[in-house]
Amino acid sequence: MFALWKLVLYPNGNKKKNVEGHISVYLEMVGADSLQTGCEVYVDFRFFLLDQNKGMFVVLQDANKKEKCFHGMMRYSGFDKLVTLKSFTDASNGYVVDDSCVIGAEVFVCKERRAGKGESISMIKDAVMCKHVWKVENFSELGNECCKSEPFTAGERKWKIKLYPEGNNAGKDTHISLYLGLDDPESFPCISLLFSELGDPKKLAGPKVFAEFSLIIVDQMHAKHKCFKGNNWFCTSNLTWGWPKFISLDTLNQAGNGFLVKDACIVEAEVTVHGTATVL
Predict the structure, then answer these.
(1) What is the mean pLDDT of residues 112-122?
(2) Tens digits of per-residue pLDDT, 213-225?
(3) Fold matches, 4-114 and 120-279
(4) InterPro entries of this UniProt entry (predicted)?
(5) Closest by Cα among 183, 164, 170 to 252
(6) pTM
(7) Taking the domains of the chain in order of start, what are their residue ranges?
């Protein structure tokens, strides 16, 4: 497998993602159409922005430092909001001099693999982002049980947001845990049939849905929202994906932060379904 790469810059923000007041920069895999079905490239990368006044590069990378998986349906990754336009155009920062800037990328291909055979992948050419807003009221009375939003539709699938008010797993008793999940696993007929006959769906390959998504807890006072972004293949054996340590309970409950107002928080999900895979 051999991959070529290019940088994609939106100097006034990626309007397709409703970005304003920032520049957006992405690393894109070129020639992804020629990849064989199931081929994946795992990459660690970072961006460089040159301070032309000092002759020094500012390093910009994902705080999670997690490898990104590129394939035929996920061709790019990067930052919707790399840096504010105000900071970018501030002459004292040296990013733009004589109406020009210098942006670079360092790319490490960690591994390449073929995920498997026997799947038919269908891409959605003009994928549409769907947004769902969930107001969680009487938050202090919820206890430690999982709360679920009303189902909503994105990419012809039903989804739900799952929230643990006192956390679960690594976030137990210290954080809110927040996840996106499929709400219609019964729509995978071949898995349902095999489950009834063989008993364990985790051992069986089945239909999958690939989605790119954001989960957000809204700052109702200052518009400084808490947001995490991810992408995942959702299937019967992997119905949910998210973050056990989404936001600390101390931060949530601190007066003036705006995340909890009148004992209510607002959670948003932005979901874009890019494609599906089915067993041949």
Answers:
(1) 65
(2) 999 999 999 988 9
(3) yes
(4) MATH/TRAF_dom, TRAF-like
(5) 164
(6) 0.59
(7) 4-114, 120-279
Fold (topology level) of 120-279:
2.60.210
The CATH number given to 4-114 is: 2.60.210.10
**Over residues 90-107, mean pLDDT:** 93
